Amino acid sequence: MGRFQGLFGIILILGLAYLFSNNKKKINFRLVFSGIGLQVIIALLVFKVPPVFRFFQLLGKAMGKLEQFAREGAAFVYAGIAVKPTPDTISDYAQSGFVFAFNVTAAIILVCALVAIFYHFGIMQRIVAVIAKAMNVVMRVSGAEALSNVASAFVGQIEAQVMIRPYLPYMTKSELLASMSGSLACIAGGILVVYSNMGLAAGMDLAPMLITASLMAAPGALVISKIVFPETEESQTMGVVKLDVKSHYVNVIDAISHGASDGFKIAMNVIAMIIGFIALIAFLDWGLLKIGHIFNPEFNLSLNYIFGKLFYPVAWAMGVPNGDVNSVATLLGQKLTVNEFIAFKHLTDKTIPVVSSKGLLIVSVAICGFANFSSVGMQIGGIGVLAPERRGDLAALGLKALFCGTLASYLSATIAGILI
């Protein structure tokens, strides 16, 4: 029963998508089943084929190395405050342990600089185009939505839309929703490195799970979005995958400086959100505690208590072992209503402990995505700048995209849980 408990989750997730579909008769079931099949193949390759799993473990070690390199820059900037200088290097950043703000800042800036270099030389565009062509053949989705969803597994929410900027004004509403959903279901490379290293700091090897989650999220988002909003219009890029995005950097130095600058902005935004949300949670928990004590002095009401109850059925249906259901449900609630950083912080520092390996896998995949309420606003604002004429459609589709992106992450997690 334990292995196949997740079947209830798949039925629940697809059932919710079908329930909220705006045109049930137009659902392309070939696309749905091919997309789920693609997710299953990705999960099987990673978790059942040892060489592939070892390759993903090596990628995880590479992420750890990236953070070590990032520490060198951080050590110079923060020496004497957060790190202890030594004769061997500029300063021994590792001796200070994991300092969230400094580690996050350093890792994101380095990865963004590397991505900018790859983008400048056309490497990123080629990788995205190759994978998008494969997805286009397997799932029969349009070129624009395939490109956007695959790009979202490597770069940020808005950067993925930049790659399809020429198509944005002419995309159908179904394509636009699929594109937004993919960006919410996936996670940027720089952030993925941060989560992986947060896990390593806590003795958790999350890298294979997180990389798999982001790869599975691309077809998963297309599956859910095409159930919720089936294609009824004529796409201008159906069957066509053409990516001709030129580098806007003058040279590699310009790419590095712009990438580092963009990484700093992202890192500062992350730090600001963490401070603001944690402070707000503390305020709300204080108020809820007082309300709970009105009814019962022993009743410590909190947001975590509420999340644990609301998301309990979802966590159980996804196949989480009974001992971890309440913790996973709480983390699912935090990720959706607050953000994934808070959920990962509480997972990796064991504030909300998940003890079973299966529970850890499912929750890691389920919360590895940008699907939260604040991200919806970021998408509407960011994509709206790229295509001002679509701002009304973006606003109308925002909550649908959040719904689809969340279900896509849950679908990936459920499938992964069944297969291990």
UniProtKB/TrEMBL annotation:
| Membrane recorded as keyword | yes
Indicate how the chain sits in the lipid bilayer: Multi-pass membrane protein
**What are the entry keywords?**
Cell membrane, Membrane, Transmembrane, Transmembrane helix
**Where is the Nucleoside transporter/FeoB GTPase Gate domain positioned along the sequence?**
102-196
Segments forming domain Concentrative nucleoside transporter N-terminal: 8-80
Please state where this protein is localized.
Answer: Cell membrane
The transmembrane segments are 6-22, 29-47, 98-122, 134-156, 176-195, 207-229, 266-289, 301-319, 360-387, 399-419
Keyword Cytoplasm tagged: no
Q: A Pfam family this protein belongs to?
A: Gate
What GO MF annotations does this protein's record show? nucleoside transmembrane transporter activity; symporter activity
Q: Name one GO cellular component term.
A: plasma membrane
Question: Which residue range or ranges hold the Concentrative nucleoside transporter C-terminal domain?
Answer: 210-417
Principal localization reads membrane
Annotated family: Belongs to the concentrative nucleoside transporter (CNT) (TC 2.A.41) family.
- State the protein's name: NupC/NupG family nucleoside CNT transporter
